[in-house]
Specification:
Elements: H1 5-8, E1 14-18, H2 24-37, H3 44-55, E2 61-63, E3 66-67, E4 70-73, E5 80-94, E6 97-110, H4 115-128, H5 132-140, H6 144-158
Parallel strand pairs: 1-5, 3-6, 4-6
Antiparallel strand pairs: 2-3, 5-6
Helix pairs in contact: 2-3
InterPro entries: PTrfase/Anion_transptr (IPR016152), PTS_EIIA_type-2_dom (IPR002178), PTS_IIA_fruc (IPR004715), PTS_SugarTrans_NitroReg (IPR051541)
GO biological process, one term: phosphoenolpyruvate-dependent sugar phosphotransferase system
Keywords: Phosphoprotein, Phosphotransferase system, Sugar transport, Transferase, Transport
Length: 159
């Protein structure tokens, strides 16, 4: 399986106009609702539980106003990525680290997915987020089409 971010991020799972969140739980529930609406998951509650299970293993706060929470669960129908941009950052706590976040990508991975494939997608996303130009495009995007164009452009650069 050779998943590309641009293959699994749908218009239904991108929110560019989010208000700030009061906490991580509110964020997780919002992102789970986007994945549910896009048909990627069967249960918002079970997926949120998988996000918290993953949080127990290590921080998903990446610094630079970015968080990459992810969950692997039986409730995931198909791999998916939800993206949320908050113009006002909020305090994101993960494994004792606290930082302001504005850009959040959440990965929904089916339980049976090979761990290497899962890590490849996560690694690709992390590589994209190392490019300041990519991050700037995410901040300036006006639509899903802008976001997906930026993802495809930088996927081809780091691939």
């Amino acid at each position: 399986m050779n998943l590309r971010i641009s293959d699994v991020m749908t218009q239904d799972s991108v929110n560019l106009e989010s208000e700030s969140f009061k906490d991580k739980d509110e964020l997780f529930r919002h992102l789970a609702s986007l994945l549910y609406k896009s048909g990627k998951i069967q249960s918002q509650e079970i997926f949120v539980e998988s996000l918290y299970e993953r949080e127990e293993l290590g921080s998903t706060y990446m610094g630079n106003f970015i968080a990459l929470p992810h969950g692997k669960s039986m409730t995931v129908n198909n791999p998916g990525i939800a993206f949320c941009r908050c113009m006002e950052g909020f305090a994101y706590e993960s494994q004792g680290e606290v930082g302001q976040v504005k850009l959040i990508f959440v990965l929904a991975i089916p339980k049976e997915t090979d761990p290497n494939d899962y890590l490849k997608v996560l690694s690709m996303l992390a590589k994209l987020l190392m490019h300041d130009e990519f991050i700037n495009e995410l901040y300036s995007s006006l639509s899903y089409e802008d976001v997906i164009r930026a993802v495809k452009t930088y996927e081809s650069i780091v691939d």
